[in-house]
Specification:
4 copies of one chain form a homotetramer. The first copy, chain A, has 10 helices and 14 strands. Chain A is α+β, with helices and mostly antiparallel strands and 368 residues long. Chain A is globular. The interface between B and D is small, with 9 and 9 residues.
């Protein structure tokens, strides 16, 4: 995907906080990402045969056994026209005990079941109760979705990769894993990621972008969608969805993470999403807990960086909120910019957003 | 299951409102129930082989196609140590678009996937987005739960039965369907049902009972659990769970159904459940909408049965609340009373509650 | 109120856990309770003049300044036909920063304003933002409620008492403070309290009881309401309300306290409340944090009292859940048993529940 | 306030949907707005004396008695560091039964009490239970907030005006009513309003703006805050708050209004708000119900304007969502653009945003 570049490479700086090394969710130490991508067949849709444009993306919260070392977590459900699995238990227990998987809608439950198998077989968890976490968006414009082509080996592949060395560095974006058949603002969408890093915490976001209408697209506030009239998409509905995963190393409790989670979707709002009635807009966040709030505040005091606003009413959360919104806005743009044109079932094609045209528009509005 | 009798047959009258004809959720016209029960093997647990004590219970909301004629619905999550599938979408859209299935915990996702297959194949729904609804409790004391033995044909069997003539009358209770391996208050539990019928609405409840500690058991307020010391259960944990489904023919909107749903679990509270930290206590309710609130109020006016309190502040809901709590309390007792002693994996045995002893206790407390 | 006795003195033992020294919310060290009771005038209602049967009850979370030392807190809203003030902020910040006040419905906002004055004047808090917490139930059957007779001096009196030596021991129950004009199950209701104490935590509950229909009353499971037909109440509606405050010394976080809060109302369900559509059923809980969960678990380990279930999935919460339900059930009964017959506006009279008759009924059902 | 102009007059067109006649919440027929503004004294703060920069804004949902004709309503709480009164009851009953008032934080409860008086005295409601609805933001940078200077006559004045002919046309914006002392993005803020009108519904929004950091300000996507460095504000904290009221004539039910309410705050997100930890971000919406969904769909069918997406999954809500976000974004800008420089207590001054400079910036980015 060499010709495709992210928002930074184009020259945009979304927000004010610096990115981490990889500008990816993997900047949160321990977090790994792996994709299994299935692109098979061409031509007319034959349910159960293809064409297949699907996959699964896995996020592991740390290098250990997530069932033994559960991570503190929280959920925000903005609009729940979506089938996400495992959310209610997170809301009550405040923890996640498995990796998180993303896929195409109708594969959700097979993928959840395969995740249980993986927990049994690869993590060695002998438990009769387990809360697999799976999110989805609907890739049926390109994919034989009713065929439900994602199977246990794909899930295992994504999880194995997420746990490998490769899974802990640069994250592949665009038409990969769960994002393979997805759309965004009438262009090709898919997986995007970004991160923010301050003196005292790192926060990373990964999205599976499948939402937005063309005319609503705003690139760093520029109403680019109105100028990007060619090629006009077909088959774009107001609904569609986005799955957002965020991770931080700051040891917040689940109520605090929930407050962060509620802000995350604002990063999508800024790109022009309206949260249509048929949209599944879910945010799942967790912390590796590598740095406790107490440690952070101690450091700030020692460095003289602390002020009253930082500690009053959990004021240190404000930077976390901002980091979360900024990283989400950028992750959405990265998904859009990195994805390549893809043809799927019945000749349906989603064009990549033309990056040269994007640059022209940003120049027109004096933003580059 | 001839020797096992329900709470009414023992002589108890839970609450003040009359039951419907079948004293079952099927008293709400159109609602059907079907079970697929798997009892196979004996002896030591061999994961993947058995012994199997599992199954699936299906509830269809009406005789039509539930995807085409979605039913207005609501959800209450009391304690979410549970894996229920499909709840967030119900909360936002206020409708259910598939039948509801109940099963053993680790079968949840295969069952959800099979429900999608059924929607495609048997209801002819050609949709790439669909929100299957599945609830579960944990039957691993008797069942090879890690073996995940419930498969697509079991799901199809339960659904076919729920749509047959048989599914619309008397409902089998106890060790059937999803309730096959379940426990209750240290005795054998499983499926139970009950209903309430007034001049202006019918409401039915079906539970999959798998919760409660022995010493907490209250039968219509009598602290029976303290006297029922023999045989003492092993392997009873404070957690465990209960799934509750209710149906009514009164055309409430989803906010109103949600208010009913919040009361339902009180019927379980009255039997002595404490809602342990590891408990999955979910209520899902829907209305067939056969009688609108306006029709109901018109009838009441004509019959002179209406008074001011009935219409002020949705006062007509009060009878619905009471019916829901009463029917739930009775459904829990029916699950307990109808279930028979069952031996499962590793020789683990759950004894049926001894009904003669129950009668003696009720007589001791002057309640029969 | 010498002739009125609580549930324990009658011979009932609600649940299994021991009570604290005072069997009151004040068993949680630091918690203080004060009442200001206004009983003035008689005869026909003249709005703005009386008769007045009103008051305010104050609960202070500890002996310090609650704005400086905020307490971790949580809220459960079961049915929100009620005007409680301050709840949304507790849900997001997880803390309470003022004492909690209880009063008659239409006095709620004057009482909240007076609480702000008290924070300024008596606690010396110079803040332009502050979240006063006030709960209410409707005492208009006896009280000139539209007259809104509770004023700043009453609020100051209740708060001063709650902070005095007197406020930290035995708690007055029945027709006192905010409970002065309230009803319960067609009898006189009002303030009631109870506590539970284990090796590792104390939990106390205080209720302002104003709910329940006569025929639904269950005393420790005995359907006493059906036998207590004389005198039949007038002016009892299905709605009405209950305010529940609980406190513990165990240092739970707000998510955990919320899980406790959700159970509390089950104690009311067991006495026969149905949560009518016009009911305001709110629970507010806090912890003084005197004993951290880590300390508790250390103690349990040292004493050999810990087992696996205690620490798995926050299993130590189960005893807290049970304590909360038991103490609530008993606090409701205490409110009912301690309240004395009171005549109010327009000659309206609420009779005290006849305790001799209660004993006879409990004997009839072999429960004493 | 002649020299101050709104976003439209500057040349901005926020979003794609047309405004109503007044570009105000009063475009929803029947909705009235009235302000009572208190500007008194100057110089050093003397608590209880002044200087006073405060007031109250009233919104009446229709011209009738709101207690007799309750309006269907819903609430979204984005971040609840705020004292809003009356929200829990709206969430459960789905209706509002009084006008809505906006004021300065510590006046909240006196204002709520005065609203009850108004209901008794002016609307003639003889009720002992009533749910007044009041929102607030914190004006203490300019105002003697601890002095709590808003009194019953101010509340009556605002309500009388909202019910007058004047209250049903053009709405005064900026330093009026509850918005008098408020700030926005380090400039003077206050009251702002806007509306959207389609063939089939009207929706209006009114905000009390008191949130945002200077550097975050985005005007229709342009990062204007970074260029608007002079004069830099003092006393701006990350927190602060916004109250948002919306009204529509489309007869949605409360679940649907709630879905709209969740989107509304996105309009604020687009102007650059981050929802700080100390922010009270509440949305309250209602419908006059003048046009039922059925009527609307009939009209659409007759006009040929209906398509499948309009009726599937409540697809007609999508336009309502978009209208709500657009009108909110514009109402925030109007509050900012209409407010004039104001000096308050201790010489504290909030400068009006310099509109000439704003135009230059918009021109620089080629947006005018």
């Amino acid at each position: 995907m060499g010709s495709r570049i992210g928002a930074r490479e184009i020259g945009l700086e979304i927000g004010n906080i610096e990115t981490g090394r990889f500008n990816a969710i993997t900047d949160v130490k321990g977090v790994g990402v792996g994709h299994s991508t299935i692109i098979r067949g061409d031509g007319a849709l034959r349910v159960g045969e293809g064409p297949v444009r699907a996959g699964v993306t896995a996020i592991v919260p740390h290098q250990g056994n997530p069932f033994e070392q559960k991570v503190v977590a929280a959920v925000d459900v903005f609009n729940a026209y979506g089938k996400s699995v495992g959310l209610p238990q997170i809301m009550h227990t405040g923890v996640i005990e498995t990796p998180i998987l993303l896929t195409d809608t109708l594969n959700t439950w097979v993928v959840a079941d395969a995740l249980v198998s993986y927990m049994h077989e690869k993590y060695g968890v002998q438990a009769t109760s387990m809360n697999p976490v799976v999110g989805e968006t609907n890739g049926s414009f390109l994919n034989d979705s009713m065929g439900r082509h994602v199977r246990t080996p794909h899930v295992f592949e994504a999880l194995d990769k997420a746990r490998s060395v490769e899974g802990h560095g640069i994250v592949q974006e665009g038409n990969v894993g769960g994002g393979t058949p997805m759309s965004g603002f009438g262009f090709k969408g898919g997986i995007g990621t970004s991160s923010r890093k301050t003196d005292y915490f790192t926060l990373g976001v990964l999205v599976q972008l499948n939402c937005g209408r063309r005319e609503d697209l705003r690139i760093d506030g520029v109403p680019a969608g109105k100028d990007l009239v060619e090629p006009m998409p077909k088959g774009v509905e107001a609904g569609n969805s986005i799955m957002i995963i965020f991770a931080t190393n700051l040891g917040l409790d689940s109520r605090q993470l929930w407050r962060v989670a509620k802000r995350v979707v604002w990063g999508v709002a800024r790109v022009g999403h309206y949260g249509g009635t048929g949209s599944g807009d879910f945010t799942i966040g967790f912390t590796t807990g590598d740095k406790s709030v107490e440690e952070m505040l101690d450091e700030l005091r020692r460095s003289g960086g602390e002020d009253a606003r930082m500690t009053q009413n959990e004021g240190y959360l404000n930077s976390v909120f901002r980091a979360a919104i900024e990283a989400t806005e950028e992750a959405v743009l990265n998904a859009l910019f990195k994805a390549e044109t893809l043809r799927g079932r019945d000749g349906n094609t989603r064009e990549a957003v033309p990056l040269d045209r994007v640059k022209q528009i940003l120049q027109k509005y004096n933003r580059l």
